[in-house]
Amino acid sequence: MKYAYYPGCSLECSSAAYDISVREVADVLQLHLREVDDWNCCGATEYFSQDELTACSVIARNLALVDPQLDQLVAPCAACYLNLKKTDHLMAEEPAFGAKVNEALAAGGLHYDAGRVRVRHLLDVVYTDIGETAIRDKVVRPLTGLKVAPYYGCQVVRPLNSFDNPEHPTRLDELFTWLGADVVNYPLKSHCCGGHMTQISEAQAFELIRRLLQCAVENGADMILCMCPMCQLNLDAYQRQVNNYFSTSYNIPIVFFTQMLGLAFGIEPGKLGIGKEIIPIEPVLRAKLSGATA
Amino acid sequence: MITIPADKRGLTFLDDVVAETPGGERLVHCMQCGSCGGSCPNGPDMDHTPRTLFALIEAGQRDRVLKSNTMWRCVSCYSCTSRCPQNIPITDVMYALKRISLREGVANGSDAPALARTFTGLLDKYGRSFEFGLASRYYLFNKPLSMLKMGPLGLSMFTKGRMSLIPTKIRQLGQLQAIIKKAKEMGGEA
Amino acid sequence: MPEKVGIYVCHCGSNIAGTIDVEEVAKWAGENIDDVAVARDYKFMCSSLGQKMIEEDIQQKGLNRVVVAACSPSLHEKTFRRACQNAGMNPYLFQMANIREQISWVCQDKEVGTQKAKALVCAAAERVKRHKPLEPMKVKVNPATLVVGGGIAGLQATLELADAGYHVYLVEREPSIGGHMAQFDKTFPTLDCSACILTPRMSEVGQHENVTLLTYSELEEVSGSVGEFKVKVRKKARYVKEDLCTGCGICVSKCPKKVVDHDFEAGLGHRPAIYTPFPQAVPRIPVIDTDSCIWFERGKCRACEKVCPTNAIDYEQEDEIVELEVGNIILATGWKLFDCEKLPQYGHGRLPNVYTSMEFERLCNAAGPTGGKIVLRDGKTEPESVAIIHCVGSRDARHNSYCSSVCCMAAMKFGHLVLEKTKADVYSCYIDLRCNMKDYEEFYQRLLGEGMHFVRGKVAEVTEASRTPFENGKLVVQLEDTLLGRQRRIPVDMVILMGALEPQADSKEMGLKCGLSCGTSGWFTERHPKLDPVATMTDGVFVAGACQGPKDIPASVAQGAAAAARVQSMIARGVVSIEPIVASIDEDRCSGCRVCNNVCPYGAIDFNAEKEVSVINTALCKGCGTCVAACPANAISGAHFTDEQVFAEIEGVLWDAGQDEGQAPEEPQREADSVVA
What we know:
The complex is a heterotrimer of chains A (294), B (190) and C (677).
Chain A: E1 2-5, H1 9-12, H2 16-29, E2 32-35, H3 52-64, E3 72-75, H4 78-93, H5 95-106, E4 118-121, H6 122-138, E5 147-150, H7 171-178, E6 182-183, H8 197-200, H9 202-218, E7 223-226, H10 229-237, H11 239-246, E8 254-256, H12 257-264, H13 282-288
Parallel strand pairs in A: 1-2, 1-3, 3-4, 5-6, 5-7, 7-8
Helix pairs in contact in A: 2-12, 3-4, 3-5, 4-5, 6-7, 9-11
Chain B: H1 13-20, H2 35-39, H3 50-58, H4 62-66, H5 79-83, H6 90-103, H7 112-126, H8 131-142, H9 146-159, H10 173-187
Helix pairs in contact in B: 7-8
Chain C: E1 5-10, H1 22-32, E2 36-42, H2 48-61, E3 65-70, H3 73-86, E4 94-98, H4 100-104, H5 110-128, E5 137-140, E6 145-148, H6 152-163, E7 168-171, E8 186-187, E9 192-193, H7 194-207, E10 211-214, E11 217-225, E12 228-235, H8 250-254, E13 258-261, E14 269-272, E15 274-275, E16 287-288, H9 294-298, H10 303-307, E17 320-326, E18 328-331, E19 335-337, E20 354-356, H11 357-363, E21 385-392, H12 407-421, E22 425-430, H13 440-450, E23 453-456, E24 459-463, E25 475-481, E26 486-492, E27 494-499, E28 501-503, H14 507-514, E29 541-543, H15 553-573, E30 575-578, E31 583-585, H16 595-599, E32 605-608, E33 613-616, H17 626-630, E34 636-638, H18 643-653, H19 670-676
Parallel strand pairs in C: 1-2, 1-3, 3-4, 6-7, 6-18, 7-10, 18-29, 20-27, 21-22, 21-27, 22-23
Antiparallel strand pairs in C: 5-30, 8-9, 11-12, 12-17, 13-14, 15-16, 19-28, 24-25, 25-26, 31-34, 32-33
Helix pairs in contact in C: 1-5, 2-3, 5-18, 5-19, 6-7, 6-15, 12-13
């Protein structure tokens, strides 16, 4: 199966572990991901706050750059996924607006027909297009005994959702059941991590992060699985600051779901970006998953 | 109790917000149930809940709405949107309010507008986001004191290879900038 | 006699005149349509003055055809036919053009609207000129009535008719009559015990000499029409012989299999594989649930057969089709509860102490699984706090946009019961409180006095994720208290979801069987929302109770009685007129091929073997036209829908179609078509 691939800026550096593991896992699953040539930043939520037309034009450049032979675009980042999908949706729903976007694109010699590219999140592709049987087939190192808390966040499951329940998503839970992991009941699994609020209002963001960590720990999770770079960053990199702020002592590793998928497929931890997380996962792997440590 | 005075510009405010929001015509269907305010993870930090904001819009309270921090506290989690029993695209209304408040120069969302501008400024310049540049510029100009606190975090990110000091540029930067220029001309940048 | 057509264009106040230039339409019709003797416009054609105008024109100007361009024929066709008849004209020489629902209410451009109005008026005029005088057919009304649904509305209708001396066949899908009301503990606002007021009615119906009770039965098919319906009912196999069973209940008590009762006990209690839904069931004859019976599952057991003192158990019993003849039908098929798991944020099915309203009814019912003790799912702990969430699946564009109308009051009833039976705090989380019938506001006042907390805000979510020690182990109800403008978290032990009332899952099919349509929300559509709430567009078919829209008990009873009264007036009339719009066969042209015999959906065509022609049974014919279209010899025509009439009507609609080519048209043309589309 062939897809265009839009890694997004975070996956270049701060969430390189996500990108590396996506590519490794894709190889095993025979997902042919062709990176969109010379893609640009999707603008996150920031451009929409200032200028909707520019926001969509910037995003639409990426849609226009998708190889004409491909009709599906995979994005692993929640914000990129939503922005790409939303732009396509807005252009289709409001043709007059779509025409304006195309007028802007024309200034760069580009054009995009709304609806040409189907934007998919990586989880949807893995869950739906690959499916249970093929995934179970590839598991060489079951995650037996490992207690994982799947964390969905907001932007993949909520607006314009087509593949999971927005209130009580289960696809990641199911996927990890296939891998043999022990999926913990995690009531806050689609609650917000605070997004960019860590930059604006610490107190507010830290409280949201604390709740998520607390909920996972309370329910006995060994680790939290993420499918969005922003969620991973907030829960991982800010965990120590949260501890300082609330005098707590959380020490729960936060990894991308593709990293654990890769481990289950028998890929070496080093090839999956394991070790790049701030709260190290290695002690958990050593304790629970012999043979999976680097 | 303060009587809310009628305001001439307020009369068209609801229409302005509706026009600025894709699917905004649903806004007039708000029945003040509070699903949005109840769902919002940042509700407690807003000076008005989204529902209150909609009542203020309906009442034509242009200034109170545009100077509110409510929309700037919205992190686009879409909980309200997915629960609204009247199918109002609430998150998009928040984006619209951010844009109007920036355009009218009354934005009052503490540092959120600055973060937005710094972010898109880098995008315009490089075509990619540049986390180190974003953090250093944003903190330097907006919250220099917090920079010290961010030090250890930045350092650990750097040692883990998760922060680069040099921005990545896209190849066809000229093309992107031409598109942005054209879009801004057509849309009237905030 | 040459045709002399009168054309009357109604303003309907500004309803029509606001979007259509009615003067222009009338003037144009007078000048351009052949054989028009008079064309007028008038403010309200349906007023007595409007009708008089038509009558006088018929008498003074010798009109022999009349067209009224106004509203839908379903509203006023009868009115104007009667006016024509009063003036001595055959009422079937009248035709109505609907320029309100079909034009002015759906069109904004006056020019376009006016143009289309001309087309419809022209079509009606061309058609009416080819009408033939017809005489309505007289049908004797069978005094027996079919009532479908044995809930409180159906029971009321049944008793009214049976007490008046008429026979009623009462068909109920469940093993017992009683409906939802049999599941309730108390009724608002009087707090009468539901069973105490319901069960006497149930036994009255069960024992009534004029009532034939067909429980565990479903309506299969309806044919015929008002006065003489033929009905097929499927009596599902009970595996218990009704004539032998005495209702002693020994089989029920000896059955070794117990399963969760998802029907009557809403999943909170158990029942044996052979069961009556509840002790006061009418009839007391049990049924075997073949999905759980050990004999049907594994071919062993037969315990019930062994213990039955009257040998009433019959494992070989099969469904039986019962054929009935009735003059009228009352549908009282009720409602079903919204599936609360469609709102996962409220946790039903995931969080044990989240209950639906129906579960809670059983929980606090003295005859229910806990003997009326209000306890948590563990079966012993009394809640210290209870939150009741309103509008679950109602007033929600994602599910049902209507208000379910009874939940506010039911929520307060629950609040009262919790306050009476426990020491718990009770929170009602509402959007708007709707307590607008007799003594309802007083009930609200009473609950305020009893200390129920009313919090205005639609609940955002119910979560077990606590944030503070105070919330530990609780269900936290999170919402915006909209009167404070702040988010609140209310920790409680129990949550009750006031689920929406929804149409029965098969209401559309049921409607089709009886010639009824359902509105956008799925409820049966009444003939007129204000003036004719229990009749339907099909003569002889009436609706009562919640199948027509969410309703509480008093309103359901009132409708049951109203429907019965309507049926009694039909019976008292003895004979009803039905539209003579039936097919007829020209025997000279009929080749006897019998194609029509098989296509008729009403079985109304027989074959006369002697003459070798097909014959229409006019009593069964509904005038649908299927045979007319199917006849290869063109031997069948439908009265009032002859080819000539229909083609003339089409020609009339297209009066301006040729103008494109020749001279330049003075009015826009194709836009009119786009409005039609």
